[in-house]
Amino acid sequence: MITKVRSAIQRFRLVVPGQHVLLAISGGADSMAMMEILYALSSSWHMRLTVAHLDHGIRGNQSRADARFVREQAARLKLRCIVGHAKVPAVAQRTGMSLEEAARQTRYDFLARTARRVKAQCIATAHQADDQAETVLFRIVRGSGVRGLGGIPRVTLWDGVPVVRPLLSIPRTEIIEYLRRQNIAWREDGSNRLPDPRRNRIRMEILPLLERALNPAVRQVLVRTADIMREEDQWMEVQAIERLHRHIDGHGLHRLNGRGLQSVPAALRRRMVRLWLTAQGLPSQAADFDTVARVEALAERRHGSSILMLVDGWRVRNAYGILELRRDKRIMPVSFCVPFRTPGECRIPVVGCRVSTWWEPVVRKPDSTMPGLLPAEATLSPLAGRRRLTVRSWMPGDRFRPLGMSGTRKLQDIFTDTHVPRDRRAHVPLVCCGDEIIWIPGYRVAQGWQVVEPGQPALQIRIEPA
Hints:
The protein is an alpha+beta fold. Helix content is 39%, strand content 21%. A hairpin with a 2-residue loop joins β9 (314-319) and β10.
């Protein structure tokens, strides 16, 4: 199994030799196997390992026993172990999240804080092939597109820290066999045996039924499906962005030439329409399958004018084959979210600016004068160039982790402190990776997204008036 994990790490570039890796260890079978395997690889790869464990405060004495067990196992391997404590039920009650959601949020927040504290370059979690199979099956039943069927990504980010999953191709049966063969102990979570939550029902009842009745290799099939879907989703996104630019009317992004959409394959057409809608600020949750289908139907009308009303004042107008997306600005603030490629260039007509990115082995220090003051330049970690980035507008509740400061700050407080007028705040372009703001032009780069190895090619970004 060590050979399989080594191959996965190398193939997907999860960890590079010499890195400091924070291991998220619960004490369960999966995480104990990951700790042992990465420990076995650490000397030849010159990896430094630190163990992190969070006591969620959910299972009382069992949780405390888990923490003691993890400390003992880390000490056996002479690894530093950091144990955190939380009261997840109280977090769930305070925030309105489910217990599972609150536990996940609290755990990853703890891991990201700990990674920065010990200066680890990434976090390793022990998600394995059965987790992937359960995720894909759950999304099939719930209903999902290609992106959702990609399942759990092998590499993602949490608060600017890379999270890698080296066991994602290994089935749990192999993990258990490996632990028994190596005489390695682990802890059992009694909650996994209860068939009440939907995910546990998939794990304990539905997947075993599918193996018996349809395909003994159904888990491997679902994992392979996730890999295929994720790769195809990345390719289709690039194709959709490029094709969308060819269908934009010359008067700006808000005008889409609908006459040529019917010649585009349906899957690509849906993605183009969704990108067009969200690039101008329509919330992604509002650009669902049904909304996209209604816009497609509107585009088929070639004569006269028609209007399709969406949510929150948004409307699409078809005037002789040209689609226009508008919002009543008298009651609605400007809003936008535009994906862009790296390296490359894109325009954001709604706020009249242009974004350019390129690679160069220099570090440009951004001006920290006023958020939104353009032109503005910055240098981001090379990691940013390998992620899907967007430029979007400010939303209530946004928080930012400024480089050189501890913790996060409300964007509203930053705007107030830097005297950004209220009527200009929605026009400030924010560079984001997923849900995290990584650069505020005219202000600062986010903690965790700065260049740590000067002299190496890094992502340069410039935003200027168009």
